[in-house]
Write a structure and sequence with these properties.
This protein has about 375 residues and is an alpha+beta fold. It has 3 domains: about 1-65 and about 200-225; about 65-195, Jelly Rolls; about 230-365, Jelly Rolls. Helices cover about 20% and strands about 30% of the residues. The chain has 5 helices and 16 strands. Strand 3 (about 110-120) and strand 4 (about 130-135) form a beta hairpin. Helix 3 packs antiparallel against helix 4. The longest helix has 28 residues, at about 205-230. The protein starts with a helix and ends in a 5-residue tail after the last strand.
């Protein structure tokens, strides 16, 4: 659309009307055929829409200029999507393969630090493809914990993170084992050569692109993950290996082997998980999510467990109890008022990926 068209659409208000119409259309995902039909889950669904709208506006409208990238946190305690990991601190920035970028930072003591360039097509329902990957084990870091990474299409000396011709974003994952004792990495990104430049003033075209991108992201992402939740129903209350290629195609970490499924418990039921073998790995974790694939509220409830926080049996195995109330046993995962949802188990940095058993039983029969 031309500059004059965008300006006219701002002047006459049709740009805003179209934005509001797109939001109304996005709301239909809450009434998907296999989605829960009760008021509690629908209310969470509409809240989920508001959360992803905020994410879309931040990404496409406020921080969408790859000439002046800014690292932002796209998933946190009140913006959640795609089984977001409660152990993670996520960061993201828009980039353009026509430019080269410099990432600088200090390592901190966080257990895991990974950088990935991606082709992010969530706005069109196409997921997210990784085009380059680097984690802290591969990065040269000086004695004071400082590092520098060059991000570009052509290989550079030192720490180099590759881009492809369609790369449009960079994702950073910091994975904690114990947030109370580990220090996060401090990271900045800048376009090389932009030191003396300034962004151009805001325009009608940028508003149009930003609002359109935000609503396309909202529609594409919510439909993608609602459809994924529906696909878990055949393995209800199991810890089922996911399609790993698909996980990577929508932005999964290359170091992770994923298990995904749906869960549902009556008031008097519990779900007991048993990881009989814990492989050599950087870490592992389990988390409980709602139907919309949002992690449950880990600010106030224990909804996940990891390698560091878990209680281990005498034989080295781990038993996890998903229960509506406290069973008086270790590794209790709270349902936080939910009776159904989705779940995720991750083996991270493991050479093997043993199965995890799951069984539903009556609360009264739990020992």
């Amino acid at each position: 659309m031309s500059t004059n068209d965008a300006q006219q659409r701002v002047l006459d208000g049709t740009l805003w009307d179209d934005f509001c119409d797109a939001l109304k259309e996005a709301g239909k995902v809450v009434h998907s055929e296999k989605a829960p039909s009760d008021v509690f889950n629908k209310a969470e669904g509409y809240r989920y829409l508001t959360r992803l709208l905020r994410a879309g506006l931040e990404s496409f409208l406020e921080h969408g200029d790859p000439a002046f990238p800014e690292l932002r946190c796209p998933a946190h305690t009140t913006i959640k999507l795609g089984a977001d990991n409660p152990d993670n601190f996520y960061q993201n920035a828009s980039i353009d393969p026509r430019y080269d970028y410099r990432i600088t930072g200090t390592r901190g003591s966080v257990d895991y630090l990974g950088f990935g360039t991606v082709i992010n097509r969530y706005a069109t329902g196409g997921g997210m493809k990784t085009t380059g990957w680097l984690d802290s084990r591969q990065i040269d870091i000086d004695d004071e914990g400082r590092f520098e990474i060059i991000v570009s299409q052509t290989q550079k000396p030192g720490n180099w993170l590759a881009m492809g011709p369609e790369t449009n974003a960079i994702n950073i994952r910091q994975t904690f084992q114990d947030r109370t004792s580990e220090k996060a990495a401090e990271i900045e990104i800048a376009r090389i050569g932009a030191e003396k430049e300034r962004p151009a003033p805001f325009t009608a075209e940028r508003l149009e692109r930003g609002l359109a991108g935000a609503t396309m992201f909202l529609q594409g992402t919510t439909q993608l993950f609602e459809g994924w939740a529906e696909s878990f129903l055949p393995t209800l209350n199991e810890i089922a290996p996911a399609d790993q290629a698909y996980c990577q195609s929508i932005g999964g970490d290359p170091n992770i082997y994923y298990f995904h499924s749906a869960w549902q418990l009556a008031d008097d039921e519990v779900l007991v998980l048993h990881a009989k073998k814990i492989p050599e790995c950087q870490t592992w974790n389990f988390q409980l999510d709602n139907w919309w694939m949002e992690s449950l509220d880990y600010r106030y409830h224990t909804v996940h467990v990891n390698k560091h926080t878990a209680h281990y049996e005498a034989d080295g195995s781990v038993r996890v109890i998903v229960s509506h109330d406290d069973p008086g046993l270790p590794n209790w995962i709270e349902t936080a008022g939910h009776s159904l949802g989705t779940l995720c188990w991750r083996w991270i940095g493991a050479d093997e990926h043993p199965p995890v058993d799951a069984v539903v039983m009556k609360r009264a029969d739990l020992r």
